[in-house]
Amino acid sequence: MSNKQYTKDDMAEDQTLTCRDCNENFVWSSGEQEFYAQKGLSQPTRCKACRAKKKAMRDAERSGAVERKMYDITCSNCGNPGQVPFEPKTDTVLCRECFMAQRAAQDPQA
Ligand SMILES: [Zn+2]
Ligand SMILES: [Zn+2]
Question: For residue 36, how far is its CA from the centre of ligand 1 (angstroms)?
């Protein structure tokens, strides 16, 4: 009765991981492990709930439902004040118009 037939599905066992966001333990099932392996992904760092939350946040940002933090800048090309959705790391920062114009010039196919 303990003569269990081992298949390749028995290779992977459910793993308990700790979510980096909420510090809760969550189960990374063997089925998910297989899926991750097939996709060449590394093991998840967040539980399903936190991943869903993250995804919802990203989707909301993308759809404009959540206002993105904007940073005031002075365009280094035209000198006009503008806003960018990222923290400028250098002095060379372009307003939206100049950025679009520059990108269009660099990549005419875009
Ligand atoms: Zn979590
Ligand atoms: Zn400009």
Answer: 18
